Amino acid sequence: EKGGYDHFMLKEIFEQPNAIRDTYRGRLLVNEAIVKMAGVEDNMKKFLNAERIIVVACGTSWHAGLVSEYIFEEFARIPVEVEYASEFRYRNPIITEKDVVIAISQSGETADTMAAIKLAKSKGAFVFGVCNVVGSSISRETDAGAYTHAGPEIGVASTKAFTTQITVLTLIALRLARAKGTMSSSDYRLHLQELELIPEKVEKTLLSDDHVKEISAIYKDATNFLYLGRGFNFPVALEGALKLKEISYIHAEGYPAAEMKHGPIALIDEQMPVVVIATRKGHYEKVVSNIQEIKSRKGKIIAIVTEGDVSVKELADHVIEIPASEEALSPLLTTIPLQLLSYYIAVMRECNVDQPRNLAKSVTVE
Ligand code: F6R
After folding, report:
1. 191 CA to middle of ligand 1, Å?
2. pTM higher than 0.90 for the full model?
3. Are residues 126 and 100 in contact, defined by beta-carbon separation less than 8 angstroms?
4. Does residue 17 contact residue 200 with C-beta atoms inside 8 Å?
5. 61 lines ligand 1 (CB under 6 A)
6. What ipTM, to 2 d.p.?
7. pLDDT digits (tens, 9 = 90+) for 28-78
């Protein structure tokens, strides 16, 4: 059932190329330059009249929501707020009929997300679901939705659900961008083509497996980790830190790279591994100077870079290369080595990777 892999988590990490293909199949029509999603098409008026989009979710799904904030705002110029479902539901939030609420949930059973949906509906908002489990409670409660089609995710640590959620949200953003005319047609087409190529690039990224394993062996006994990223990849830093915490029980924090100097830099010494997402275009020069700051404080740098990178290679202790892509799509690639890193560290620490202590696959209580 694990298809020759030692754990479901590893199997699911390696399933991502096909999972992403399954997510966009029949929806991403590159030759026709069309994005086709019934749930969006049927409610286009609601999306086009939306004064803002509010995303509600928990955990990893919340991180996918954060990535989508950058994508929706960049592509479709719709203001987005991303809320922890648990905070949103208890805050007497301001919601109107002009809001579109997007609820993201792998399991479709998360209690806080469900309560946030009910609250938004009671205020007249249109609620769109992005779920993986077909027929789940959230998929039934929402007004419309789009499934991720990632297939069953058994490992408690979410992996393919995350990348397929981002894929669905990117498709929606592209569809809305086309309808609103907020993206040039050449840019729009370029992103359709590049999105279609992502599964191949994920395959290529997965070839770093052995290299990530070697790095994991060096840092498996660390007691703290920092993860830094900017822009589209800031939420990936949060997600990388969450993965490490939940399966290896190492304390880890994700930060936007520029926030480092406002506090976390005080933590850096020769004991501190810092994972930095430093891909080309993503505020590259600024991230390079953040890396210099870490290096001068003797922090250990594990950098995720674009193939052919030169500057970061000179500074970092380790680099993991990913293929070049459009910046907005890069989270689908940068996330992969971070999943592998947390996986191998957890295995080397003899942790129960698929069923980490104190965690449940679906959180049906608040
Ligand atoms: C992290 C993880 C959790 C879930 C969260 C939301 O790896 O698995 O943080 O992402 O409990 O679950 P869903 O997406 O099912 O609502």
Report:
1. 28
2. yes
3. yes
4. yes
5. yes
6. 0.99
7. 999 999 999 999 999 999 999 999 999 999 999 999 999 999 999 999 999
